[in-house]
């Protein structure tokens, strides 16, 4: 960084774990989630590229945990943000942009009649569950356990191996069901009759819904008078401008958005039916729900960014771009997997706008050591890669070509690694660890 000389930079980096628990503000950005040759910090980004503290430029396959959906420093968004910055960022009464964005979103997204803004996805998923509990007067939450993450709050983190600090009484209030397993949710409704406040899940992550799973659980949830919550944090504004609920014809009672909606500026949205949402309002006679009430939730620059991002998405048909470019990656990767005879050992799973890679050992088990080696080799060749392809609108065919060229070289190395029983010797540092683990 220009403001720091080499010694100051190295001293600061050495202290990062003394300054910040985990050395980062999201666990998935941490050192234990990257090979040791990964850059330690980002310095600046432009489009699909990021420059890091090691002085190198990388093709960015992280894109701010999928939040930067158009590209780094995207001109149309930053222009709108700068205009808003000069008008002020926060006030004692709502700013007009709050009403503008609320109006825009409620007109755009079918079924979203009211909205509430926040800074993080966890805030809005948690708010959705609280609202559902208040609306139904029930205490249990049913969450889809096959999907990785919904919130860092107790109701969800208590279902993972990271339960420290969460009382057992709280953990018991969250029940789990499996994706594509209708019976697992049906059983919960039988075991806890009239006690489940809501069902929350992402519409899709890695696999297609089977046997009309999504529609069937929507019907089951509504029949049991529980609130049906769809978390579109990843799929919203990515699979379709109107989200994956459009693709799968879902009619959730509440829906949550975040990543991608404001091109990396901090904005998350809880939306849904007026009948439920208005319980957080001040114009009814029922008991009040203290819904989302934060100092920074409606900070004007993020709202300006969201308005500009939605404009750009509509103008440029950004979601069509995601499907097209994602398909190019998937096809190219599958060709390479065949070329190197790695079928079953390396998999590209998920959907074109949100592809992931799995790394399996010859016994079929997911291998963190092999994943680390693969990532290490991609990073060495200029991709900041974490095993997924979170596309932005700035990832064009040229970036696909560059990526596939690197992947070709990496798979050639990987093939040799697989032929050697002592994989650990190829690791330059420690292997990546699961995010949700009880001990470090
Ligand atoms: C599906 C899903 N829901 C909720 C969240 C939480 O969002 P945030 O990190 O903005 O709190 C995430 C974040 O990764 C997510 O992927």
From TrEMBL:
Q: Which Gene3D superfamilies match?
A: Aspartate Aminotransferase, domain 1, Type I PLP-dependent aspartate aminotransferase-like (Major domain)
Taxonomically, the superkingdom here is: Bacteria
Which key words tag this protein in UniProt? Pyridoxal phosphate
Any Pfam family hit:
Aminotran_3
TM ranges: none
InterPro entries listed in its UniProt record = Aminotrans_3, PyrdxlP-dep_Trfase, PyrdxlP-dep_Trfase_major, PyrdxlP-dep_Trfase_small
Provide the cofactor list for this protein. Answer: pyridoxal 5'-phosphate
Q: Which GO terms describe its molecular function?
A: pyridoxal phosphate binding; transaminase activity
Q: Which family does it belong to?
A: Belongs to the class-III pyridoxal-phosphate-dependent aminotransferase family.
Record NCBIfam families: PRK06209.1 (NF004856)
User: What is the name of this protein?
Assistant: Glutamate-1-semialdehyde 2,1-aminomutase
Biological source species:
Candidatus Magasanikbacteria bacterium RIFCSPLOWO2_01_FULL_40_15
